[in-house]
Amino acid sequence: AQSVSQHNHHVILSEAASLELGCNYSYGGTVNLFWYVQYPGQHLQLLLKYFSGDPLVKGIKGFEAEFIKSKFSFNLRKPSVQWSDTAEYFCAVKAGSSASKIIFGSGTRLSIRP
Amino acid sequence: TAGITQAPTSQILAAGRSMTLRCTQDMRHNAMYWYRQDLGLGLRLIHYSNTAGTTGKGEVPDGYSVSRANTDDFPLTLASAVPSQTSVYFCASRLDRDVGELFFGEGSRLTVL
């Protein structure tokens, strides 16, 4: 069965630091990949997605992610974080063109020190 | 505004009672999903529906049932609630099984005592 791993459970950074959150999935075929953000007390919102094409994907609020097929990874990056980036970040995968399920990782809580 | 509406926002329920969480979307999306969110476990898929009239089991379907009588509504029913079903429940929709991203509702916080 497909699975998604987010190894960083809680990341603490200072403002202006660079960010990289890891996401690995277990599926060898075609995948759709997503990063969602959940700000405190809110529902999930899409940051970016990858379906095909350029493996470097640009999202909202300065976030980007790179799909590396050989590593089964889709890491999220931001060159300079802001206090307002404090949130929980979820990686999600839809494995296979005929799959119905979108499976989420356990999430990474990001805390930014002002 | 257009989107997904969930009700109730919050509910406290005695163990053994039944409960239906309601979800309605006005985007004419074909695919709909129910997830539960628990600390340290992220979101886990309970049930899904690719189109009206069809449903499927997700990662954690036991103790839950769904129906999809029409495109807009996708209620989630707990027939006999247990404390382990205490969670925040999110309904989501997608244009189609293979198209687009998930849009989420605001969530329903359920506490089973």
Descriptive keywords:
heterodimer, A: 114 residues, mainly beta, six-stranded mixed beta sheet, four-stranded antiparallel beta sheet, 0% helix, B: 113 residues, 11 strands
What does this structure look like?
Chain A is globular and about 45 Å long. Chain A has 114 residues and is mainly β. In chain A, a hairpin with a 5-residue loop joins β7 (56-58) and β8. In chain A, strands 2, 5, 6, 10, 11 and 12 form a six-stranded mixed β-sheet that branches. In chain A, strands 3-9-8-7 form a four-stranded antiparallel β-sheet, with no helix packed on it. Chain A contains no helices and twelve strands. In chain B, β4 (31-38) and β5 (42-49) form a beta hairpin. In chain B, strands 2, 4, 5, 6, 9, 10 and 11 form a seven-stranded mixed β-sheet that branches. Chain B has a four-stranded antiparallel β-sheet with strand order 1-3-8-7, with no helix packed on it. Chain B is mainly beta and 113 residues long. Chain B has strands spanning 4-7, 10-13, 19-25, 31-38, 42-49, 56-57, 64-66, 76-78, 87-94, 103-104, 108-112. The N and C termini of chain B lie far apart (34 Å). At the A-B interface, β6 and β11 of A face β4, β5 and β9 of B.
